[in-house]
């Protein structure tokens, strides 16, 4: 797409290295910046600055393939991502990682994938694959694998797990960074975790926790995704510890990706009074330097990866260039739609209402307390008499997708607020079995069977509602274009809320109710699990 001729663009140059803005012209040739020169004659008020980097995102959580994700992301000024492919790796193993690498290469967006460190995340669930330390070392030896992805089994690392230590040692041999994932760790535990190897954390949900991890030498990724929204709590770090901050979305469904990406975090940070140079460095330079990314910083000799923004107050991206090629302009992608290859692993068969028909045997039950806007949950004890719609204590179930027949795990959850029907999803971090929540057994079976019939998807079943978004690629990603997927997702989201859900993002929240490494109470296909106890707990009290 770039040519041998010299290209140029004039405006207000945002120089993050010298922390100044000046009138001038950028020139580039064959995808490389050749000069950035001052020119007081330039009258254009458009801002020209380095493109944005999402410092931690699971592409699969957008429900799109990398090449389709890129078509939406470039509209918002994103030129690169730091991505952990452990979603698809939990389904397909190394072949899943290779799938993401191959599809990403079809796009100019600079995807930087890591080697998943926790496949499966724990031994307390059924996944479709496993990656031991030898497999992770093989991946880390590849030039197109840039880092060791988030070490989620923080109890294991703190306990000296030999496999995790071997993975970290392999990353150090390859001189590659180690990403962290340690929700809630404070004080000496945070220090011990950092000393074991991880250098970043994207799971902080309080400012105090972030300060402890910064004191331990870690860098903090300020996250604002679909379910986990920590920007408000952590934004003060941009004023006190800007050099230790990066921006990320982690998990972002397509309805939001259509509207925003890292650009929205920049807008919010600027509106909150943070220094513009610190904010933009968190959005670009800090992740580039931390991970050693081949992404331009608007300097001569760098790749021509930059964006044009209309102004500081509105901060709307007007054009995005990657390696000198115009990839988005005026809110429209210029990247072509590419048909994806279908790959999957899905064996589950239809379920019956009777599969969900369990009754408490005691006077009270352990209940998952979902928290809107957070991945953490509460461990509640609720009288058995309160089970039902009236007290918002609903059934939650996980169905093993990798076996044709397996017992259904059933528990209870509060926080979804459904008054009728059920939701189901084959996006269920991190093993991606089928997770469902509903008010009655018939609705649960109906929603789950919609997903099973398509070998992956998101569904809503209820009075007058029978809707599904098919996810045929590993049960995680759609085969349609991003805007079509976004419209289908929005339809499902609205249907869930018509059934009574009070959550901002009910499907994203549902997808994390099986993620055992996030405290405290979650449900796997094998039963109710407490991260605090690091073991199963009974449903009955």
Please outline the helices and strands.
Elements: E1 7-15, E2 20-29, E3 32-38, E4 47-50, E5 52-57, H1 66-73, E6 78-83, H2 86-92, H3 94-104, E7 110-115, H4 133-140, E8 145-151, H5 154-158, H6 162-173, E9 177-180, H7 187-195, E10 200-201, H8 207-215, E11 219-223, H9 231-234, H10 237-240, E12 245-248, H11 254-257, H12 262-271, H13 276-291, E13 306-309, E14 317-322, E15 325-329, E16 332-333, E17 364-370, E18 377-383, E19 393-399, E20 409-414, E21 422-425, E22 434-438, H14 441-453, E23 457-462, E24 465-470, H15 482-498, H16 506-511, E25 521-524, E26 527-530, E27 535-536
Parallel strand pairs: 1-4, 5-6, 6-7, 7-8, 8-9, 10-11, 11-12, 17-20
Antiparallel strand pairs: 1-2, 2-3, 4-13, 13-14, 14-15, 15-16, 17-18, 19-20, 19-22, 21-22, 21-23, 23-24, 25-26, 26-27
Summary?
This protein is an alpha/beta fold and 541 residues long.
Walk me through this protein's architecture.
- It is a single chain.
- The protein is α/β, with parallel strands linked by helices and 541 residues long.
- It folds into 2 domains: 240 residues, TIM Barrel; 184 residues, no CATH class.
- It is built from 16 helices and 27 strands.
- The strands form 5 sheets. The chain has an 8-stranded mixed beta sheet, with helices on one face. It has an 8-stranded mixed beta sheet with strand order 18-17-20-19-22-21-23-24, sandwiched between helices. Strands 5-6-7-8-9 form a 5-stranded parallel beta sheet, with helices on both faces.
- Strand 23 and strand 24 form a beta hairpin.
- Helix 2 crosses helix 3.
- The termini are far apart.
